[in-house]
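Amino Acid Chain and Its Fold in Token Form
===========================================
Scope: a single protein chain, as residues and as a discrete description of its fold.
Amino acid sequence: labelled as such and written in the usual single-letter residue code.
Position: the record begins directly beneath this header, with no further notes in between.
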Amino acid sequence: MDILFECSSCGKHCCVGEKAVGKQFPCPSCSETVQAPEPKLVFPCSACGTVCSATEELGGSGFFCPACEERIQIPTTSVLVCPACGINMELDTEFYAELEGRKLECPECSESMSVPARPRVQKASDNSHPPGFGNKTLRLDTILESIPQANQLREGNCPFCGHAVEQYGAKSYTCSHCSRQITMTTPTIKRGEPLEE
């Protein structure tokens, strides 16, 4: 997802990829240092459908799509387009924040659709511990591979709160929303074996 923003010094239109959020760059026009912001708005290009993002301050202004280079107007709210029926759904910032990274049922055709997560500043990590390791509120949970919640985890969603999870090991995941560290395990008791008392 591309992030659209303006240079605070000269107003030059800039565009970066989502992994650049929070990083600083020299403006291509005036060479002043600019920082890629965390966007609040998510919307498709009206010409080619490429999903873009921008800050709320740019809502209502004109910009060029980074994919097709057509001039577009940035909406004042986030916009989702149902891939099945093409209906546009406008979502305010707070409601979008509740839905991002989850599945949503189209109110027009009832098809399931994904709500893209907004790009955020990547936290530095040395990968020696999972994200959130050492946090006093950290929740550690183990899920058996054979139960339905494991399928949600395999699809990239937290089985407890439904938000997107990050995988940091072969069977280990973390949810940045509810701070759970989740591990999938294989059942150790085989059928027909007596339980220890």
Notes: Residues 144 and 185 are 5 Å apart (CA to CA). The first helix runs from residue 93 to 99. The chain is about 5% helix and 30% strand.
